[in-house]
Write a structure and sequence with these properties.
mainly alpha
């Protein structure tokens, strides 16, 4: 299993770093593709626990919603509160249309929950913010910052948790996660954030100080750990270990983006609200 993880990472990581570097439509296309794959896996997981929403319907709905959000900058919208209101209305409308189309009334509420949660959890929290983060001033560097902090923190938590972990956080949700691994993961996340700030190759803006780098890395570390646990809850409810088998040794697409789902918007709004980036 370990060698599969190493081989997959050796191939995928350079490819994704290259896509982040070139940005523009290839970056958006890859993000949309990953989001759709994650939505398919999300749909499969929820069907395992009783949802009857069809894959074609859910992917079509989420694709429309995602594309409308991904290419619309709320910050520059003339009336952002109206845009957000239309977003919520669109989600609820689609959700209740799906409920009406259900053959069984008792599956309606679960189907509504699947549509709404999926729209916010994957389409908005991940897809929308991954594209918006890259579009910020200095977005390429900040995207690298996000990815490296997550990768280093996750790797440290996984390895140290295996070797040193004795106290489980929530064994009924994620049996492999330990307090020791989590703490060490947060430590390495913070260190890696400072390392990325110091290393000139990543070209972080001059106004991004060491203190801000440490704060941002700590925020990413905390939110990525919570994000990882959130996906574990879904998988445990469905009674599976991985969301899919797309990536050898790593599971599915949702397994690979799980740490980014909460961490990406956390970094994005930190940069927008604290540093005032646009």
């Amino acid at each position: 299993m370990l060698w599969k993880r190493v081989v997959s990472s050796t191939v995928l990581i350079p490819c994704f770093l290259w896509v982040v570097w070139i940005g523009d439509w290839p970056y958006k296309a890859i993000t949309i593709g990953i989001t759709i794959l994650a939505l398919i896996e999300f749909c499969q997981l929820t069907r395992a626990i009783g949802s009857s929403v069809g894959q074609v319907a859910i992917i079509f709905f989420f694709s429309l919603l995602f594309c409308s959000l991904a290419f619309e900058n709320i910050a520059h919208h003339e009336h952002p509160e109206l845009f957000l209101g239309s977003f919520v209305t669109f989600v609820l409308f689609g959700a209740f249309v799906a409920q009406i189309l259900q053959d069984k009334a008792d599956a309606g509420f679960l189907s509504v929950a699947v549509l709404v949660i999926g729209a916010v959890y994957i389409g908005w929290a991940f897809g929308y913010h991954v594209i918006q983060l890259r579009s910020l001033k200095g977005g390429r560097s900040f995207t690298y910052f996000l990815l490296i902090v997550i990768w280093v923190g996750d790797s440290a938590a996984y390895i140290c948790g295996k070797w040193l972990g004795k106290h489980k956080i929530r064994p009924n949700i994620s049996p492999g996660k330990t307090i020791e691994g989590t703490v060490i993961g947060l430590l390495f996340s913070t260190i890696s954030g400072l390392g990325v700030w110091y290393f000139p190759y990543f070209l972080l803006p001059e106004y991004f100080s060491a203190k801000q780098a440490v704060s941002a890395a700590l925020i990413i570390g905390i939110t990525s750990q919570i994000s990882d646990l959130s996906e574990s809850i879904i998988k445990r409810c469905a009674g599976v270990k991985d969301s899919g088998t797309l990536i050898p040794g790593h599971g599915g697409a949702l397994d690979r983006i799980d740490s980014m789902i909460f961490a990406t918007p956390a970094l994005y709004y930190y940069l927008r609200l604290i540093l005032g980036l646009e």
